[in-house]
Amino acid sequence: MFFTDSKNVSINVKRFFVQKIINKIQYLLDIRTETHNEYRIFCSFNSSDLDDSGILILFTKKGMASFYEGFFSTEIKEAPFIRLHHTQNLEEKWGINIPKELNVKGYKPIDTDYEYEDQHEIWFIGRLD
After folding, report:
1. Within a 13 Å sphere around the CA of 93, how many CA atoms are in the beta-carbon half?
2. pLDDT in tens, 3-26
3. What are phi and psi of 84, to 5 degrees?
4. Global pTM?
5. Which of 95, 108, 112, 119 is most buried by its number of CB atoms within 10 A?
6. ∠117-123-128 over CA atoms, to 5°?
7. DSSP one-letter string for 45-65
8. Sign of the CA dihedral 62, 55, 83, 129?
9. Long-range contacts of 72-75 (CB under 8 A, 24+ apart)
10. Of 62, 56, 50, 67, nearest to 6 (Cα)?
11. Beta strands in 60-114 (DSSP E)
12. Number of helices (H) and strands (E), helices first, in the chain?
């Protein structure tokens, strides 16, 4: 497991890693060429376990729709999510800077059993449309 999962690691260290990921998302979006313009580039992170963080690149808008369809799949009994509407608080709560060009969406598992028991919030930041 990545050391940031430890409760002994300060929020400053976690903030540093989250900010680095957000900066890389912005960088990757900035260097896209006309050929790559449709790419959806974003990161995801779990507020309670940064070990699950990642950068995702989907090549089409249809790919993004497919991603959301899988994420919200009703076939997965353990993972119903609700949308968090206080996404603007993410910057304040974590003390991070999210460029205005990036979209932010947050979700919280409703059922906290099984594999989602330790997940408080799941955040997506980047080009999400």
Report:
1. 9
2. 555 667 777 888 898 999 999 999
3. -90, 130
4. 0.79
5. 119
6. 140
7. EETTEEEEEEEEEESSHHHHH
8. negative
9. none
10. 50
11. 81-84, 103-109
12. 3, 5
Q: What's the pLDDT band for 41 if we cut at 50, 70, 90?
A: very high
Both tokens of residue 16? 């540093």
Using alpha carbons only, what angle is made at residue 119 by residues 17 and 24, rounded to the nearest 5 degrees? 25
Tokens 């990921």 belong to which residue?
Answer: 21
Is 25 exposed, middle or buried (CB count within 10 Å of its CB: 0-12, 13-18, 19+)? buried
CA distance 126 to 107: 15
Cβ partners under 8 Å of residue 44, min gap 6: 52, 53, 54, 56, 122, 123, 124
